[in-house]
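A further point concerns the way the authors explain their paired sequence and structure data. For illustration, here is how one protein appears when written out as sequence plus structure tokens:
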Amino acid sequence: MRHGKAEPYAADDAARALTDSGRAQAQATGEWLRETLGEAAGARLLASPYRRAQETAASLAPLLGLEVLTVAGITPDVDPRQALAAIEAAGQGAPLLVVVSHMPLMAALAGWLQEGVLNAGRAFDLGEARVLEADLPGPGLARELAVFIPRLRH
């Protein structure tokens, strides 16, 4: 999932907070994820350390019954192969991972997992979630099962 809409400026990109619209997007996506994923015993909720991703994940946590685990290696400009390694390490043994991060990483990671190429992948809208399934995490091994894009309310 890509984080919800954030304020356009802050002293540091990592400090940008969600707007009211971003919080509404996170709520809508969280409700969709709960309905789509159902009960997921042993699932993990992973989030970038950036404020907007942390706030988005915090909105999802009570809806999914999960705690937020911060993963430093999933910030916007990380190489998708390194991000996948960080996700695998944080999610080891979990049957389901919910990852909250940023563009351009999310598109590159989805492209890498689905197409096996690093420069592929369509952009994620703000608050967008995609459900990917793979028997093993790796290039070209995932398939997309569902997509949800919340509409702005403000």
Observations:
- Strands lie at 44-47, 68-70, 97-100, 129-133, 143-148.
